[in-house]
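Researcher: Structure prediction, please.
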Amino acid sequence: MTLQEIKQVFEANADAEKGKRDEKYMRGLFLHYGVRSQDRDRLFAALFSKAEAVLPIDWDLVFGLWAEAMRECQYIAVWYIHCKRHHLTKVDIAMLKKLIETKPWWDTIDGLSIGPVGDMVKRDSSLKETMLEWSRDENYWIRRTALQHQLYFKDKVDTELLARIIKNNFGEAERSSPSVDGRNEAQNRAFFINKSIGWVLREYSKTDAEWVRRFIADNKERMSKLSIREASKYI
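Model: Predicted structure follows.
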């Protein structure tokens, strides 16, 4: 399926009212066709049933989708990458970084970090050093990706790596606003980094609650209240 064919499918199934609601939910950052996720699954089933068998990954299609104004095009690109994630190699990490740096928000960042990036690191341990580098990146979406790449690794989590990545992200000051609405870039950075720290610790607490308890106890003076609250949910 070509980029033009994908756009034609979206245009034929667009729902303007839902699109406006989706745009409001996403803080007005992106335009939306208003096609529900379950409808995307159905409409593009043929594309993705064949994607894994076709090599190599079509980066021209991915970046073409990424360049489109409608946010659902980026969702299709993420979905396509998920289908191809087992075929990604170390040389593809630069491509993923370009996507993360372009039109970033939590929806695409989480879709790329949880699965594609994580799978690559799991297969190629040399990329652990890349994750450490990313954890110190000026771009906080790159850092969020590094934080989350082991999110669902369970007993396969490299705790030494996890601890180093988290510690590299201490120090993001919290703001008083309880909502993402109206935040400036510094407030967004603090929220998304501190939330991510708490999320990864909370998830790992399901596997090793004692390790998470010790980590919080050892680092509570440097951790944000948000991170501690999220990390402590199940312990």
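Model: The chain has a mean pLDDT of 93.
Researcher: Thanks, that helps.
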